[in-house]
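It is time I had a proper look at our fold encoding. Can you supply me with one protein entry, sequence and fold together? It will help me judge whether the discrete encoding reads sensibly. Leave the record below and I will have a look:
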Amino acid sequence: MNQSQQNLKSISAIAKTIVLPENCSKGDFSSLNQTIPTMMTIREVAKTGLMCEYTLRALVKQGKVPCVKAGVKVLINFELFCEQLNNPQQLCS
């Protein structure tokens, strides 16, 4: 079995373990749009004007921003971050 066949077999095994909501099996994927968060880089969030890039990087470093780190790139969950800004106790704790 060559490398591409092994990769395909691995992907097939992973795909079988994914559980979709009941209506998605019927081809209605509208409910998935509600669960996918908007992920933005630090620079993209800074361009919205919420706060400057330097402050965002400091908060990410302190672990006070809902984000995912992929190598050197940081992706911020924008909706959760906006919720945190509306509730300042979450940022201070």
Summary: The mean pLDDT is 80. Residues 1-34 form one domain.
